[in-house]
Write a structure and sequence with these properties.
heterotrimer; A alpha/beta; B alpha/beta; C alpha/beta; A: alpha/beta; ten-stranded mixed β-sheet; 7 helices; about 40% strand; globular; C: alpha/beta; six-stranded mixed β-sheet; 11 helices; 12 strands
Chain lengths: ~425, ~475, ~260
């Protein structure tokens, strides 16, 4: 049975015992969309360069009961609230959120008030496809974090998503909702890791809703193994004067697709988007971003950088969309890539769609190599070629790594990436 | 509303000055498209059997295809049975001299600023004039033939140089390439054919002037240009059409072939009727232009100034097959009122050390939509390929849209591909600065726009550049954002 | 002579001029008369309204004139469009000259010169005499000709931009030139060159208004009159000695005097 049929089949058992986190009507509608649209194929413009075909016939288990415990997770060495998901399902015993109640409501999606969820769920979905529909149809396992008015979470929230395939291939679909009330602020970190030698497929969606003057920093670190497939969508909805800062770093996994969609839905919002992707072996890393400037006087800035080695493939598709009313928009986008090997490929498509005239928008994309001059200079100073290359790659990556504002985390991720870049 | 905006509104309604109709008798095919139509056209042109078969193959393939929908343009479905596929001005058969051209026709071309009379022409531009479906005349043929240059209508080439036509027709743009190329291949009526022999530098600009005149007619011309080893040619193309309330389809195919060390410079000033300010009428300009640098060190340069057509859908492309070959694309696309343009280029790098450069300047005014769509593809064997693309958009007024869709696919690590794009408007401070020096707003805008497009206009041959500048001014008079 | 006769010699007459930007009142009643042949300096601290006055003379739409009048050679200046003011002979040397990519200074000036000539009913200048005139003027203001072939002000240094303004002034031969902080951002050498250019262009038929914050420019362009603008009004007028006094005592002198009243 292929993945689409597996999903439709599973839904039959899931539907009767589904929570009312999502209304039955919406679930039904979503599963119909799955039936109609199927799993995205390269015939769809948004999937032109990313082909899921090779894994569609994998005998995935959906909603697989997670292993009881797991020592397979690498926890970051920072002071943080901790949430652990195994195969898409929250594991309370491994999680630690002590003290969060003073600042925020934290519940699993299935326990949250349906009224609240319906207010925030699925409000911005610019590119709907079969996988996003499937995620919504099964929305049950995930976290709902609501930071109260004027509160600043004193510690970041780190969510570890572990794909455990020790008992066979798994397909997981967590869904998270993060709401920042007026003037609230939070740091949210998603870490994807895996254990076991079988294929995993994570189809995750996280939605962020930013009320006036709120402040969000969110990070996504992809460090699963070479059998891991990942399609993740993060949607950020901005209200007046809110601020978001996103960094998406991928240096692992077999096929990774990160969607980051930002909706600037009120005036004077500011969004920063950063991405770093390091491809080696036959890794495939696809970053799709959308910045939707719907209202005037907003600012967005985007920097995505990639290094591709071996037979790896990189995809960047960035769209800046300036709607008719969004005068005085400032939107900038830059995508820089380095190809290291004869068989590596980079496909980039930076797009501007502008419907307002009083705007400043620009984008740039480059594909090239490490600077020969700089390499020569380093070698002339006695540094061996391999090490010189590594130094330059680190310098290239630093522009994004520097955007991790939690010092201990920055240090740790930088070290991990340095390790990865070592010849 | 500021004064400048008022001026914008008044002046963007300026009239299309080529909108007249010539009253001449036509010899037309009945409306509609079937195998019979294809046979009719082929018979009219007294074509050899192989060409009829080629057309029929294209037609049968076309039947299996669907209109492409990926471009950022919208238009109602075209009724292909409501179009006349062949229309030719009735003329005495076989002209022995230019004097025998219908005076009405001659007057038409005079009005368009194109003299068909060789003697009167001071500038060395050889013209092939195509009205509706057929080539009327080609000037300077004698002089060119002394150098071995063939410059004639496609119909003539089919008879006079069948081996060249047979070898190259459809070799760059296969009949199955897309919906409109299949259609064109089935029903193309005429067009220009040009062959520059080895080592010859064509001493004058070659030019084709296209004119749609008859009502309800589609124009499907076909241009084939071959520059043999070490040769050079500069080719110009201009287009106009009468103002008519219905939309007219123009689906042309242009194929360029540059052999080793040959260079082709292809310039277009496209000023088909754009429709009125409410979007009524105008030409659907669905054109496939593709060039191949077949040999090493070949160079092909496309320059286009697109101001007309209600919808433009064209992507002049270069396949950089030869090592060290060079492809260039310089484009100014202006849209105003209800016009839609989806245009750009493809640079396919196959050869080692191949280079390409893209400069695209989009200008949107009124309620128009202007898209740049481009592909830069570096194949794995294209060592040291280089591309630089600059795609700028200028918006005038808040009713229009500017879109940039660049696709960059790089499969070789020694390639360097750079793409930059900006969107801006004409600054009020720039206009005020001009005003303060005594230049009125209308002239100021023309000045600023010409400055913005300069890099592209500089690529045009002198005469054409002046024409293009005027055209830009007319298309955009007073448009200030 | 009657007063009517006298007014014939007055080139520019500003009476009780009031203006604002959005809701903010900037000029609160300016009175000023300038005769042909004169050089007036308008000084004042930042925010006093100096540049506003310069911009209003040129017709910038950002400012709304709420009262008073400006008469230039008997014509109501406020009724004229910016380009017609320029064509009548009002020239503003911009504090921040604008860049126009792709348009060379030569091309720009040729368009301007001919627009002005057309307004005056004169024939357009042909390329040869235009280039001849340009050559002469480049010598007057000591500007490098290669600069004029480049896009207008694009990539010019601050000094080059200001020199280009004076060059344009030389080419357009205005009756009234308004120099808006032309000295700002210039080192002393550039300042001398600019001032020298202005001095060479002075005649008994034209007038200059120099708007500046600092006295130093006035060492080189010696004014006949100095006016001190403060808080939207001219609070002191005098001869060139006033500028020196102002330099010695600083603007606080004016501020204190005016807050004390």
């Amino acid at each position: 049975m292929n993945l689409k049929d597996l999903i439709l089949e599973e839904y039959k058992t899931f539907a009767p015992q589904a929570s009312n986190a999502v209304s039955k009507v919406l679930r039904e509608e979503s599963i119909k969309q799955v039936a109609e649209w199927g799993i995205p194929t390269i015939k769809q413009e948004e999937w032109k360069y990313t082909n899921l075909k090779s894994i569609l016939d994998t005998p995935f288990r959906l909603n697989a009961s997670p292993a009881a415990t797991s020592n397979a997770i690498h926890y970051y060495n920072i002071d943080a609230y901790k949430l652990v998901f195994v195969n898409g399902i929250l594991n309370a015993s491994l999680s630690d959120t002590k003290g969060i109640e003073a600042f925020a409501t934290l519940k699993s999606i299935s326990e949250a008030e349906p009224a609240i969820l319906s207010k925030y769920f699925n409000k911005f979905h610019p590119f709907q496809d079969g996988l996003q529909a499937a995620n919504l149809a099964f929305a049950q396992h995930g976290v709902y974090l609501h930071v109260n008015k004027g509160k600043a979470l004193p510690k970041p929230v780190v969510v570890y998503f572990l794909s455990d395939t020790t008992q066979g291939p798994i397909f997981a679909q967590p869904r998270n909702l993060i709401v920042l009330e007026q003037g609230a602020s939070a740091k949210w970190i998603e870490s994807f890791q895996s254990t076991g030698n079988d294929t995993s497929f994570t189809n995750i969606c996280s939605e962020f809703f930013l009320h006036q003057d709120s402040h969000l920093e969110q990070y996504k670190f992809q460090q699963e193994n070479d059998k891991a497939y990942h399609v993740g969508t993060s949607q950020v909805v901005h209200l007046e004067k809110s601020y978001s800062h996103s960094a998406v770093l991928t240096w692992s996994g077999a096929l990774v697709r990160n969607n980051l969609n930002i909706h600037l839905g009120a005036e004077y919002c500011e969004a920063h988007l950063y991405g770093l992707y390091l491809g080696n072996n036959s890794r495939h890393i696809d970053n799709h971003t959308l910045v939707d400037h719907a209202m005037p006087n907003c600012y967005s800035n985007e920097l995505y950088k990639g290094i591709l080695d071996d037979q790896s493939t990189g995809v960047f598709n960035g769209k800046i969309w300036v709607q008719k009313d969004a005068q005085k928009t400032n939107a900038f986008q830059s995508n820089k890539n380095v190809l290291l090997s004869q068989k590596a490929t980079m496909n980039t498509k930076p797009q501007l769609e502008i419907f307002a005239d009083d705007v400043k928008c620009s984008h740039g994309a480059t594909v090239g190599q490490l600077d020969e001059e700089a390499l020569f200079f380093l070698r002339a100073r006695g540094i061996p070629l391999a090490q010189a290359r590594m130094l330059l790659m680190q310098a290239f990556s630093d522009d994004v790594l520097n955007k991790i504002t939690i010092p201990a985390l920055q240090e740790e991720i930088t070290a991990t990436i340095a390790q990865r870049l070592r010849p | 509303m500021s004064d400048s905006n008022k001026i914008l509104e008044e002046l963007t309604q300026s009239d299309y000055k080529y909108g007249f109709v010539t009253n001449i008798e036509n010899d037309s095919a009945p409306k509609g498209l079937s195998e019979d139509t294809v046979r009719f056209i082929s018979a009219k042109k007294n074509e050899p059997e192989w060409l009829l078969e080629w057309r029929l193959k294209a037609f049968r393939h076309w039947l299996t295809m669907e209109t492409p929908t990926w471009a950022n343009v919208t238009f109602p479905a075209i009724d292909y049975q409501d179009i006349i596929y062949y229309s030719a001005p009735k003329q005495k058969i076989s002209l022995s001299s230019l004097d025998e051209i219908d005076p009405e026709l001659r007057a038409t071309f005079e009005k368009l600023g194109i003299s068909l009379d060789e003697q009167k022409r001071l500038s060395g531009v050889a013209v092939d004039a195509v009205i509706d479906s057929v080539s009327i005349t080609t000037t300077f043929k004698g002089k060119l033939s002394e150098l071995g240059i063939i410059f004639c209508s496609m119909s003539e080439a089919v008879h006079e140089h069948p081996e060249l036509v047979k070898k190259h027709l459809g070799s760059v743009v296969p009949i199955t390439d897309n919906y409109f190329t299949a259609l064109n291949s089935a029903v193309f009526s005429d067009g220009s054919f040009c062959y520059i022999p080895k080592g010859v530098r064509c001493p004058m600009e070659l030019s084709t002037y296209f004119r749609i005149n008859a009502a309800n007619t589609g124009q499907f011309e076909r241009t084939l240009l071959i520059a043999d080893e070490g040769s050079y040619v500069s080719y110009l193309e201009g287009c106009t059409a009468p103002m008519r309330d219905e939309n007219q389809l123009h689906a042309a195919v242009v194929e360029l072939i540059a052999m080793e060390k040959a260079e082709i410079k292809y310039s277009t000033v496209q000023n088909w009727y754009p429709g009125d300010k409410n979007g009524k009428g105008g030409i659907y300009n669905f054109v496939t232009k593709r060039a191949i640098c077949a040999g090493d060190h070949a160079k092909i340069s496309w320059t286009q100034v697109e101001t007309g057509s209600s919808i433009t859908w064209k992507y002049p492309s270069v396949i950089l097959k030869g090592d060290y070959s060079i492809g260039e694309f310089y484009s100014v696309a202006v849209t105003n009122n209800m016009q839609q343009a989806d245009t750009g280029t493809k640079m396919i790098h196959i050869g080692k050390n191949s280079r390409s450069r893209i400069v695209s300047k989009g200008i949107s005014a009124g309620k128009s939509q202007n898209s740049y769509r481009g592909l830069v593809k570096v194949m794995p064997r294209a060592e040291n390929a280089r591309n630089f693309s600059q795609c700028d958009s200028l918006l005038m007024g808040d009713q229009c849209g500017a879109h940039t869709f660049p696709y960059i696919e790089v499969g070789n690590p020694s390639a360097i591909v750079e793409h930059e794009a900006t969107t801006s408007k004409i600054g009020e401070d720039q206009v005020f600065y001009c005003n303060q020096r005594g230049i009125d707003t209308e002239k100021a805008v023309a000045l600023i726009v010409n400055g913005y497009c300069k890099e592209v206009l500089n690529q045009l041959p002198m005469e054409f550049a002046v024409e293009a500048q005027k055209l830009l001014a007319i298309s955009l008079e007073g448009s200030v954002g | 002579m009657t007063t009517d006769h006298l007014s014939l010699f007055i080139m520019l007459s500003i009476k009780n001029l009031q203006a604002r930007v959005e809701e903010k009142e900037i000029l609160k009643g300016i009175n000023l008369e300038v005769k042909a042949g004169e050089v007036h300096a308008i000084m004042g601290p930042n925010g006093s309204g100096k540049s506003t006055l310069a911009s209003i003379l040129a017709g910038r739409e950002t400012y709304e004139v709420t009262g008073g009048s400006i008469t230039f050679e008997g014509k109501d200046l406020l009724e004229l469009s910016p380009e017609d003011r320029a064509r009548e002979g009002v020239f503003l040397a911009f504090q921040y000259p604008v860049e126009i990519p792709g348009v060379s200074t030569i091309n720009f000036l040729k368009t301007a010169v001919n627009a002005i000539r057309e307004y005056r009913g004169e024939e357009a200048m042909d390329a040869v005499s235009f280039l001849k005139m340009m050559k002469e003027k480049t010598k007057v203001v000591e500007i490098d000709e290669t600069l004029l072939k480049r896009s207008l002000n694009e990539g010019f240094s601050g000094g080059e931009k200001k020199r280009n303004e004076i060059f344009q002034m030389a080419m357009l031969e205005p009756k009234l030139a308004v120099l808006d902080e032309t000295d700002s951002g210039l080192d002393i050498d550039a300042l001398k060159i600019v001032a020298n250019g202005v001095n060479k262009l002075r005649s008994k038929n034209n007038a200059v208004i120099v708007v500046t914050h600092y006295q130093r420019l006035l060492d080189y362009i010696v004014p006949d009159y100095v006016h001190v603008l403060y808080n939207g009004r001219i609070v002191k007028s005098g001869t060139k000695e006033l500028a020196l006094e102002l330099e010695a005592k600083g603007y606080d002198w004016i501020k204190n005097e005016n807050t004390a009243v």
